Amino acid sequence: MSKVVGIDLGTTNSLVAYVKDGVPQVIRDRQGDGLVPSVVSFGDEGTVHVGREAQRRLLVDAQRTVYSVKRFMGKGRDDVQDETSHFPFRIGGEGGVLRIGVGDREFTPPEISAFVLRELKHRAEAFFAEQGEFDNEVDRAVITVPAYFNDAQRTATRDAGRIAGLEVLRIINEPTAASLAYGLDKRHSGIIAVYDLGGGTFDISILRVEDGVFQVLSTNGDTHLGGDDIDLLLMDRVLKSNPKAGASPESVQEIRKAVIQAKIDLSDGDETRLNGERFTRAEFEALIQPIVERTLAPCRQALADAGVEPSSIDEVVLVGGSTRIPLVRRRVEELFGRKPHSELNPDEVVALGAAVQADILVTGNRDLLLLDVTPLSLGIETMGGVTSKIIMRNSTIPATGSEMFTTAVDNQTAVDIHVLQGERELVADNRSLARFKLRGIPPMPAGLPRVRVQFQIDANGILSVTASELRTEIEQTVEVKPSYGLTDEQVEQMLLDSFENAEADFAARLVIEARNEAENVIHATEKSLRAPDIDQIEREELAAGERKKIESVLAGLKMVLNSSDRETIQKWTQALNDSTRHLAEVMMNRSVQAALSGKNVNEM
Amino acid sequence: MSTTTPTLQACRHCGAGAPLDAHFCPQCTKILPLSRQADYFSFLGLPRKLNIDAADLEQRFRTLSRQFHPDYFYNATPAERRASLEQSSYLNDAYRALRQPASRIEYLLKLEGMAPSGPAEAAKQVPPALLEEVFALNEELDEIRELRSGAASPEEWRPRLERARQPIEAKRIEHEQQLQTLAAQWDAGGGPAVLQALRDQFLERNYIHNLLEGIERELHS
User: Fold this and answer.
1) A395: exposed, middle or buried (C-beta count within 10 Å: 0-12, 13-18, 19+)?
2) Are B95 and B146 in a shared domain?
3) Which residue range forms the structural domain that includes residue B39?
């Protein structure tokens, strides 16, 4: 059987996990690293880098490196115009789906996300192959999204999965996944609040757990609020005091890297240095206070919608890297009057929960059940630009709603329908999901046809529409044109394109592997050359010119390291390996002798 | 020409006859499509009554969720998956409608063919019994709005608005109590007269509810 995994497709980092013998586990690389930075960088000759390598390239080729793409999923160009200036890559696309320009190529956000998903798929497949699994193909996944994601954002995430060649078994909400991972069903019943502040999004969910059923009572949030916003505040601060620091896209990225480090430092320490100046936790907290405050109103709304007092919350769970910030923890604790859980790594807990859900789907295990809700009300446009709600927010999904339509003039055979998502009164203030024309209404006098349009939100939180005319029982054709999404044909084409690019991707992967290998050898050689007794070794054991030779081969390998020619890198790596073999043997012998003579190896 | 109402449905999987209100085929245990005769009460196995024990409803909801949820039909045939989606959607819609007393009454009225005809009837028309209170409230609101447009401080107008709220709030409590009495009468076997009274009270209650919400908005704007 091919494998099923759970994927946390994050704004900053992504992870893949699976369930082994009933226990969810994050799949890590050989170095034990589970996080794949959600960064995609486009090199020369069509090579694509994903993850750590792409993150490194942000400092040397920022304009061809895309990060935080999750902020753009399911969005139009107009939605994000305030922040396009913060990103080194181009953001375009008039009307309809937004496009990201890199060099002379353009990508939609789902295509960029698909590169990250494909990387995770490869990582999992390599892992299963290493485990000696019979069939290591990974072709199905549960992918998580912020609970407050709307229909367009969910659909974009599902499209990304399809473009990456994954069958998306289920889209589940991140806070709900986290609660699954915590195994909070072990205590038989209670009310849980999950506070999830990630890189780009904020969610709050209130759940009731009873007999293994995780029932979401309410959810709220902000899909544009997270660690990224804190970084931007800090970057502005640096640039204000030192405007020259932001001269090039790469130097801006240097600043970004520095402020992220400062932010991390201040989670443990009381002060750090930023831009060469002392930066205290008190200053940091004063700066980010407004961002933390912005998370509290959604929390209060979610409590009110769930009909729960803060005092009746039994457990509080923290999710997302930004919940490591002490100020965030303090404010959450104050609000709920309860110390939050933080036993599990807040970066990993969502992927673990996704793996649990994937396991439920394929095994049919009925011990646990997730009952989630739709975060936003669904409605249609009525006379005067007013939204008429059909399915209310916080309705348990799957859910349905229906509305009757009729005609305004005699023999009218089509009606225009505009579907919206949001809580506001006016159409203009809500999110346009789709417009469609209801066709095939039998010609009748005005007002006589009775067309029932049925809206179905499935367990993924994704909408579908069917319609029928009740007098004639004629099924209507409903062609939904998503306002900010891709059509099925576009997704299919992207999947085909990705196969064509697969060869280039594969070549890029081989280059990266060769480079990693080279870096390991460089690292080991440099360590040997730094040994305190290296001069003595050279005098007593090495041939004349041997050390010089090693040093020059080392320099040569470093020069070719960043080329995209795999064979050259491998040739020089081999050469360095060969020229250091004798030195390695000598050092090994000396350490064995030292150990035998009772000397501590570290003293050598 | 006479038609008899069918009492059985045929299971699409094994062809056995299954009762109309059954969720699964008694013969082959496969999930059945949603019955067209279903209503929210019968679906949950409840009598068509307005007094529902909240804990019992929750328990039924969880038990049926465990039977129908699409999570458990991932490997099933397309027909079973469709049935699971239909059944669990219907269950969630039923749970939502019956959970709150107000939406429960609204659903019962609809089921008994006495649904308010559109939002106009539900909210716009001033119920005769409330004319006096609504007239007084509107006068007060006009004066308060005038005060506010004259840049009066919230300390000046808030207490007045709060005072104007009181009689409406009292009416609301009165209506909720009357609705409870009528609901008990319906549950005890009340007929069309009880239903008609329920309907009138319910429409008035909605009107009051909207009025109070409007005041709430004024208070916080």
Assistant:
1) buried
2) no
3) 9-99
Q: How many CB atoms lie under 10 A from the CB of residue B52?
A: 18
Instruction: Name the domain boundary from B38, B70, B99.
Output: B99
Closest CA to B159 of B171, B172, B144, B145: B144
Distance CA A441, CA A449 (A): 7
Chain A hits for B66, CB-CB cut-off 8 Å, are 213, 366, 369
Quote the pTM value.
0.81
Say if B45 falls within a structural domain.
yes
In a domain, B2, yes or no: no
CB of B12 less than 8 A from some CB of A: no
Cβ-Cβ contacts under 8 Å, A218 against chain B: none
Of residues A430 and A17, the one with the higher pLDDT is: A17
Instruction: Choose between B38 and A166: higher pLDDT.
Output: A166
Per-chain mean pLDDT for chain B: 84
Catalytic residue among A8, A111, A159, A381: A8
Query: What ipTM does the predicted assembly reach?
Result: 0.85
| Structural element, H or E, at residue A317 | strand A315-319
Residue B107 lies in a domain: no
**Residues B129, B70 share a domain:** no
Lowest mean pLDDT among A38-52, A222-236, A427-441, A487-501: A487-501
Q: How many domains does chain B have?
A: 2
Same domain for B209 and B179, yes or no, is yes
Q: Do residues B94 and B143 share a domain?
A: no
Taking the C-alpha atoms of residue A603 and residue A595, their distance in angstroms, rounded to an integer, is 10
Tell me if B114 is assigned to some domain: no
Same domain, residue pair B41 and B131: no
A397 closest CB neighbour out of B62, B75, B92? B92
Query: pLDDT digit string (tens) for B136-186?
Result: 888 888 888 887 777 777 777 778 778 878 888 888 898 899 999 999 999
B93 in contact with chain A, both atoms CB, cutoff 8 A: yes
Query: Looking at residue B115, what is its pLDDT?
Result: 79
Residues of chain B in contact with residue A397, where contact means CB-CB under 8 angstroms, are: 92
**Residue A425 C-alpha, separation from nearest chain B C-alpha, in angstroms:** 14
- Do A2 and A135 form a contact (C-beta atoms < 8 A)? yes
pLDDT band at A601 (very low <50, low <70, confident <90, very high): very low
pLDDT surpasses 60 at A586: yes
**Same structural domain, B89 and B178:** no
Mutation site for A-interface testing, chosen from B69, B71, B88, B91 by largest number of A Cβ within 10 Å = B71
Is A368 near chain B, with CB under 8 Å? no
A279-292: pLDDT as tens digits: 999 999 999 999 99
Chain B residues within an 8 Å CB radius of A392: 96
How many angstroms separate the CA atoms of B203 and B79, rounded?
41
* A370/B contact by beta carbon, under 8 A: yes
Contact B71 A459 (CB under 8 A): yes
Same domain, B174 and B94: no
> Hey, are the CB atoms on B85 and A458 less than 8 Å from each other?
yes
> Cα–Cα distance between A587 and A524 in angstroms, integer?
12
Question: Is A70 one of the catalytic residues?
Answer: yes
| Tokens linked to B164 | 């104007």
